[in-house]
Design brief:
The chain has 320 residues and is of the alpha+beta class. Helix content is 26%, strand content 23%. It has 3 domains: 89 residues, Phosphorylase Kinase, domain 1 (2-Layer Sandwich); 151 residues, ATP-grasp fold, B domain (D-amino Acid Aminotransferase, Chain A, domain 1, 2-Layer Sandwich); 45 residues, no CATH class.
Length: 320
């Protein structure tokens, strides 16, 4: 359950994050910034699980802040301040209020997951033709942009072609976010590889400041008419975390088998195992996670944070 915060109005509660509008002295919502708060909730297969992962919200927030710094020369980010209410210290950040692009921007450096299933059936991923003979975990010749729909909560994102992205947001904006997505994954892997981590794929979110378009907060954007040279394309939400990316232990990488993962693949594997007794294609919600799966998932998140940043993780926030 998303918490209430004095001086803030909850405007959206997502799978694992809450968005709040700060209120001015008259109790009116500010229009230029939001408070983004990450919880310890975790989702899998489009379900929010009943079992939280302790410290997850803080780990992902601090990891994103670290990555925003590493990527600052590639793309501006949405963070304004980490000086937030004590109740959400470590998990909350004030961010620019943006209009978010209506597509999921995904790039892949390795073949796995849903991309592998599509490749096995068609030889392509999101319409991109890949070489023959690839297996689970194969490194691609170069990172590829494999976008998807941005489905409402509880529904599945579906792969779409680059041509469809051009139809939705126009050719120029499509090219800008495609290039940025691929460059973010490539930069991420340059940095992570030095620390023994492979980033197989990642999903990133972009938004724009609508002020140059003469629009106010919440007004509808004609995306196909947006000129990316007249607005600022901004990296938002989270970036290169174990929730938005697949992190693999480089020393253990071996194509053709399941990789040692730093992300929530640990709990995905348990949910789809006989031990859970759950049918992911059925109508029942996932079961509660056993303590050992919670502990291993948290340990992998902490290991990823410490390995990447070179700093020890010591929680400074209340758990949610």
């Amino acid at each position: 359950m998303t918490q209430q915060l004095p001086g803030h109005e909850l405007i959206h509660s997502g799978k694992v994050r809450g968005l709040y509008a700060p209120l001015d002295a008259a109790g009116r919502a500010e229009h230029d910034r939001l408070l983004l708060v990450a919880s310890d909730r975790i989702s899998a297969y489009d379900h929010i699980l009943d079992t939280p992962i302790p410290d997850k919200g803080e780990i992902l927030t601090r990891m994103s802040l670290w990555w925003f710094d590493q990527l600052a020369d590639l793309v501006p980010h949405h963070v304004l301040s980490t000086d937030v209410p004590e109740q959400v210290a470590g998990r909350g950040v004030y961010v620019r209020r943006l209009a978010m692009l209506p597509v999921e921007c995904v790039a892949r450096a390795h073949l796995t997951g849903g991309g592998l299933a599509e490749y096995a059936a068609t030889g392509t991923v999101s319409g991109v033709r890949l070489p023959d003979g690839l297996v689970d975990g194969s490194r691609l010749p170069e990172p590829v942009f494999t976008p998807s729909t941005k489905a409402p909560q509880g529904e599945h994102d579906e792969p779409i072609s680059y041509a469809r992205v051009e139809e939705i947001v126009g050719p120029r904006l499509a090219a800008r976010v495609r290039d940025l997505t691929v460059r973010i994954l490539a930069r991420g892997n340059e940095i992570a590889a030095e620390r023994g981590i492979l980033i197989a794929d990642t999903k990133v979110e972009f938004g724009i400041d609508v002020t140059p378009l003469g629009l106010g907060a919440g007004e509808e954007v004609d995306w196909a008419a947006v000129d990316p040279d007249e607005v600022q394309v901004v990296l938002a939400d989270e970036v290169l975390t174990p929730d938005s990316s697949r992190f693999w232990r480089a020393a253990d990488w071996e194509p053709g088998r399941t990789q040692t993962s730093y992300d929530k693949q640990v709990l995905r594997d348990w949910l789809t195992s006989a031990d859970s007794g759950w049918d992911r294609h059925g109508d029942t919600p996932p079961p509660a996670l056993p303590a050992e799966v919670v502990e291993l998932t948290r340990a992998r998140y902490v290991e990823a944070f410490e390995t990447l940043t070179g700093t020890s993780f010591v929680s400074r926030s209340p758990r949610r």
